[in-house]
Structures are given as structure tokens and as C-alpha cells.
């Protein structure tokens, strides 16, 4: 939804103080009775349609993935899945490409909020750290042990425990989708039902985006010796996804390396992330997603070096995957 700065600030601020983005009732959200609209379309506004049944707040939906080479928690059994990128998250951007975060303080389960203040509106409001039960325990009352096992295998964090990472992703991002807003669950809402719903939805998008296989199909596989070009990676993923994703890199900048010394290419050189952009028809949970180019709003489509042969797609550290 494209909001004016004033309107967006008002909605985000109100969301931080309550369990509802729009202050709506928990009654009468039977989506089977509603016409679903495509997010970011002219009909996807809360004064036109039911925001529980069409995504009106975070209409540009990003399913994001990591290629990490270690976790830092291998000794605890937290390892990466073999020959598979891991899920980073499911993010709601505004239709103009901007975004907000931590929209509902009543659903703040992140033990280390990052950033630790709201950035939109720029009020400097502190996001309090959470010190209650870890978010993985929220799944037990629903009997979702299979979901938890899948998350521990494919939604893996580097540098923090998996539950801390999941809590960060839920608190920062899930609370800023209109279709995960608490009133949407009705008067019989069971505590943490929305958490289970978000985790299930994030994984359903992830399952339809097999980045490792798509790159392998184009003979792009992890190697500590072979180098690749950004254009080849973009082509391989665009051909399979149906739109241009954002490609993220880390590591040294190309013009800080021996190969790039003296060039103007200051892109990073180690392949590490892919962000797949979508518009969605109706509820995000329904998965009726339409791929859109990462360039839809004219922004950057990569942080990687553009020089041919400048990128590494590194193998995982021994003992870091299973």
C-alpha cells in the first residue's frame, strides 16, 4: 500500500501501541465472502477492502534466503542443510519500496531488537528486549513438532540461536503485514496462532524457491576456486523465478582486491543472499504470488560486483552442514 508519509507514520505508530494496524474489530473477516485483490493495486487499500483478506500494508512481499558457510553454533548441532540455501525471512515492504518494522509492541518476542529503535516514523521509540519463553516453545501447544524440526533444518541462523533469529523475523516483519494482524484471527484467537501461521507461510514461500537447484541447473555451484559473474547468476535465477531477484553479496569490495585494484567497481565479491519480490492476490497466507522485478521501484538490484568473473560462491566450512 502506498501511504503518504503522514498516513504511514500514523499507522506505524498506532501499530506499535496496539495489536492492530488499523484499529479494526476482530469480527466479520470471512475472506471467502471477500473479493481478493492484488497487493499494490488500486483496490488494495483499507478503505476499499478488508485488510485481513487482501494485503494492504506490506504489499511488496519479499521471500529472502541466505547462503552462509558456517553458523557458529555447530557444537550445539545447529548446522546448515546440505546443498540448500536457508530461509532468511518473509518481509513486507510498502509498495514504493520503503518499509517499517516492529509494528506491534504487544507481539515483540525479539531478545535483541535490531535496530533497537523504530526507524519509521523516526521517533526514536525504543523497542524493548524480550526476555520471556523462547519463540520455539510457542509451537508446542499446537503440536507443530514437525514444523519446528523443519525450521531447525532450513531456517538456520548464523551467529545466534535459531529461536532468537525466528523471534527477530516474526517481531520485526510479521507484525507489519495486514493479513497477520491480530483482529484477522477473530474472537476465538488462540495465543500465538499468528506466530504458527507466519512461520508456516514463510516456509511455504521458501519451498517454492529452490535457489541452489536453480543455480546448479546453470552450472553455478559452490567452489573455493571458480569465479562467477553477476550477470550469469541473475540470468539463472530470473529464468526460473520469472522476474529479476535482488542478489546480495558480502566479503571484500572488488576494487579492494588485487584483481579489482584501480577499478571503479566497488561491489562486494562473495555471494550471500537472494531476495525474491512478489505481489500477492488476497491473503499472503494463500500463496497466490506474482513474481515482480526487484527493480520495480527503480532501486538497486544487487550489492555485488558487476565485473565479469568477480564473484565467489564459496563452499561451506567442513562440519557446518548436514
Question: Overview of this structure, please?
Answer:
The protein is α+β, with helices and mostly antiparallel strands. The chain has a single domain, classed as Ribonuclease Rh, Chain A. 21% of the residues lie in helices and 14% in strands. The protein contains 6 helices and 7 strands. Strands 1, 2, 4, 5 and 6 form a 5-stranded antiparallel beta sheet that branches. Strands 3-7 form a two-stranded antiparallel ribbon. A hairpin with an 8-residue loop joins strand 5 and strand 6 (289-292). Helix 5 (211-217) packs across helix 6 (230-241). The radius of gyration is 20 Å and the shape is globular. The termini are far apart. The model is unreliable at 1-18 (pLDDT under 50).
Q: Helix tally? A: 6
- Uncertain segments are 1-18
Helix proportion of residues, in percent? 10-25%
The overall average pLDDT, rounded, is 92
Percentage beta strand:
5-15%
Number of strands: 7
CATH superfamily: Ribonuclease T2-like
Order of helices and strands: HEEHHHHEHEEEE
Family: Belongs to the RNase T2 family.
Keywords: Disulfide bond, Endonuclease, Hydrolase, Nuclease
GO cellular component, one term: extracellular region
Protein name: ribonuclease T2
